């Protein structure tokens, strides 16, 4: 099983890019903190609707929970030196920040609830 769960803050604004076949993706870094105060940085890669939502709603400093898999890679830089990479390919990104109103007062996060106007709308 290859699964990673991380909670941290974004170190940069996500920027949406598109693959050769037109699929959206984004990359951003998050910082996680160890109990001893050490900070670790992780590169997160998201695809599709998750990437679009991250680019739209997240910014540097946003707090997120990421569920994904670890992927290792390598490449050769301009000087011919082999560099190794570790990425988290995100399956799910949860936005953990609370919203603020126009006066910068925190509004607690709300959960989506479908409202049924009459009993005939209930799907069961």
Structure notes:
By secondary structure, this protein is mostly beta strands. The chain has a single domain, classed as OB fold (Dihydrolipoamide Acetyltransferase, E2P), CATH 2.40.50.140. Helices cover 8% and strands 50% of the residues. The longest helix has 10 residues. It starts with a strand and ends in a 17-residue tail after the last strand.
Write the layout of secondary structure elements.
Layout (H helix, E strand, L loop, with lengths): L3 E7 L4 E4 L5 E10 L5 E9 H10 L5 E14 L5 E14 L3 E2 L5 E2 L17
Parallel strand pairs: 4-6
Antiparallel strand pairs: 1-3, 1-5, 2-3, 3-4, 5-6, 7-8
Describe the structure concisely for a colleague.
With 124 residues, the chain is mainly β.
CATH evolutionary superfamily: Nucleic acid-binding proteins
Provide mean pLDDT, rounded.
85
> What is the percent of helical residues?
under 10%
Major sheet: size, sense and barrel closure? 5 strands, mixed, barrel
User: What structural class do helix, strand and pairing data support?
Assistant: mainly beta
**Poorly predicted ranges:** 105-124
């Amino acid at each position: 099983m290859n699964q990673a769960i991380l909670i941290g803050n974004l170190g940069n604004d996500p920027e949406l890019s598109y693959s050769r076949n037109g699929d959206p993706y984004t990359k951003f870094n998050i910082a996680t903190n160890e109990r001893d105060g050490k900070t670790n940085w992780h590169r997160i890669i998201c695809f599709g609707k998750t990437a679009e939502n991250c680019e739209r709603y997240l910014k540097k400093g946003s707090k997120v929970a990421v569920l994904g898999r670890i992927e290792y890679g390598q490449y050769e830089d301009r000087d011919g030196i082999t560099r190794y990479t570790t990425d988290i390919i995100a399956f799910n990104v949860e936005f953990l920040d609370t919203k603020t109103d126009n006066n910068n007062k925190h509004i607690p996060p709300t959960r989506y609830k479908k409202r049924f106007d009459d009993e005939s709308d209930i799907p069961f």
